[in-house]
Design brief:
With 139 residues, the protein is an alpha+beta fold. The chain contains four helices and five strands. One of its GO terms (molecular function) is peptidyl-tRNA hydrolase activity.
Length: 139
């Protein structure tokens, strides 16, 4: 079997994936009713050969594709052929894993400067004056 490249030094053996062909849902006529073109991909996170950091990050995700048993389930049925759906499922798995291991930059809260606060308040005052002039006129 082949391997999936997740990053420049991390690869995932496709033998760890459980890929099965199923019939697609929805309307589509005879092709949908006869041909198993959709792909059902299952990937057990705990029993995988992924590095510990990857596993921890994946297990910490609150994604609907990850079951309580910590198995990633992806159903691909967008395309008409089994090969395209298989490629789509594998691509979505790689994106899920790579998205989980990206470390977000820590946000540093900032403060508006005194001059920007003053400009904001001045513009609000001017707008309020202009609006007050639109009211009823006393004669």
């Amino acid at each position: 079997m082949s391997t999936l490249r997740l990053s420049y030094d991390v690869e995932l053996d496709e033998s760890e994936l459980d890929i099965s062909a199923i019939r697609s849902q929805g309307a589509g006529g005879q092709n949908v009713n006869k041909v198993a073109s959709a792909i059902h991909l299952r990937f057990d996170i705990r029993n995988s050969s992924l590095p510990e950091f990857f596993k921890e990050r994946l297990l910490a995700l609150s994604d609907s594709r990850i079951t309580k048993d910590k198995v990633v389930v992806i159903k691909a049925q967008q395309y008409r052929t089994q090969e395209q759906n298989r490629d789509d499922a594998l691509l979505r798995l790689v994106e899920l894993i790579n998205g989980a291991v990206v470390v977000q930059k820590k946000r540093r809260p900032t403060k508006a400067s005194k001059s920007s606060q003053k400009r904001r308040m001045d513009s609000k005052t001017l707008r309020g004056r202009a609006k007050s002039l639109r009211g009823k006129v006393d004669i």
